[in-house]
Design goal:
The chain is built from eleven helices and eight strands. By secondary structure, it is of the alpha+beta class. The strands form two sheets. A four-stranded antiparallel β-sheet has the order 1-2-4-3. A hairpin with a 7-residue loop joins strand 1 (about 100) and strand 2 (about 110-115).
């Protein structure tokens, strides 16, 4: 699209419009019964399947969406479950930009929103969790400091299975928090999606933007990284909020384990000092 000579807001508008058209094209292809017939066995994860690691295929061409639109009866909602990979992805995005919404008397739902510029990362998350959703993502726009920002968002169904993750991060309040129970759930997939969502290159290493957590909670995260992965990290302040800094040397300890889960568009967060080519 020809955007030379246009002001920043107009270019942002055309960028969002282009992504919207691309999203429509993607959805029209991925939801076509001709190419991807949706069967119950494809989207329904029962309790005895939860520990399977073969339900999601990793690769460059994850185009099939397993969305069942409409209302499900209570019995089917209660047996709809995530597998271990999906659980790790959800925890990874909750540590960054994701959230859990829970109303009194209702099951929780997962929400996730990204800038339109992070569409590749957003789409990867959505395709991995699409069987837990009842619809497709939608475009959003917000006016901040006089500038128009475009984003894209999706929410999952309200499911009983999400109570496990809700209890890790929440205690009858609407604010995310870090508790020691997270130790049992943090793995390489969680770290990969955490970095892709909230990681930023800094000097010879990477910074995790943990601004929404307290100093005590950030220390808990640092202790988990040290005890479970032998990663030594330090706390830096950004506008009086704590962030975790991990040097290139420490990151190299887990790099081979997290790289398989990185999308191409997020490798730049690691490539400058870790020798990753993309």
């Amino acid at each position: 699209m020809y955007t030379v000579g246009l002001d920043a807001d107009t270019r942002a508008y055309f960028t969002a419009a282009t992504c919207a058209i691309s999203l429509i094209i993607i959805l029209s292809v991925t939801t076509s019964p001709k190419f991807f017939p949706i069967k119950e066995k494809n989207y329904m994860f029962l309790d005895n399947q939860k520990n399977s690691k073969e339900l999601i295929k990793w690769g460059k061409n994850k185009l099939s969406l397993n969305i069942q639109k409409g209302i499900l009866i209570k019995l089917r909602r209660n047996i709809l479950n995530y597998n271990l990979i999906q659980r790790s992805i959800i925890i990874g995005i909750i540590l960054s930009d994701g959230w859990i919404q829970k109303r009194e008397g209702w099951n929780p739902r997962i929400g996730f929103k990204q800038s339109i510029n992070n569409f590749e990362y957003f789409w990867d998350v959505f395709t991995q969790l699409s069987n837990l959703c009842s619809g497709y993502p939608w475009l959003t726009k917000n006016l901040k400091r006089g500038k128009l920002f475009f984003g894209i968002e999706f929410q999952t169904r309200q499911l009983k299975c999400f109570n496990e993750i809700y209890n890790i991060f929440y205690e009858n309040i609407k604010i995310k928090m870090i508790k020691s129970e997270l130790y049992d759930y943090l793995d390489y997939i969680v770290i990969a999606y955490w970095i892709m969502g909230d990681g930023a290159k800094r000097n010879k290493g990477i910074t995790l933007c943990t601004d929404c957590f307290s100093f005590k909670e950030v220390v808990i995260l640092m202790n988990i990284l040290k005890i479970k992965f032998d990663i030594n990290s330090t706390m830096h302040l950004e506008k009086h909020r704590p962030r975790i800094y991990i040097s290139n040397y420490e990151l190299s300890k887990i790099l081979p384990h997290i790289l398989p889960y990185f999308i191409k568009g997020s490798l730049y967060k690691l490539s400058l000092y870790c020798g990753v080519k993309h």
